[in-house]
């Protein structure tokens, strides 16, 4: 097998990243979920102040995996990082690509003084065991935190109600 390298994503990687986003959505049984195109990824990640950080795993010049993360802030500890996605193309799973990507994100978080790295995993996803193997804790069961969300429609209702 050819060597697999992890590097910072470039603008020209966005089409391949978008394809992997779709592969991840298909795996998560949400094929209609992604509403983003590669142009939005280019704009939000490479124009002006980037909204996210992205690394890619590459084999023979082909993007075979990615991570997408961004900074968050904790009022208890300060700067932290959120891992939005980690995805490895199905042909490359089980070949240590995921751990290379995860280690790169963890290293970036430490180098940038982040006190934690948060992420969510679907309750049926076997990747939970991968994360636990490397020390991740399930906050839902251990600390009783639950993830909530307001949709754009719900936010609009809230904003309207405050006038």
UniProtKB/TrEMBL annotation:
Signal peptide: none annotated. It comes from the Eukaryota. GO terms for molecular function: N-acetyltransferase activity. Pfam families: Acetyltransf_1. Residues 4-153 form the N-acetyltransferase domain. PROSITE patterns: GNAT. Keywords: Acyltransferase, Transferase. Belongs to the acetyltransferase family. PANTHER family: DIAMINE N-ACETYLTRANSFERASE, GH14572P-RELATED. This is N-acetyltransferase domain-containing protein. It comes from Cardiocondyla obscurior. The lineage of its organism: Eukaryota, Metazoa, Ecdysozoa, Arthropoda, Hexapoda.
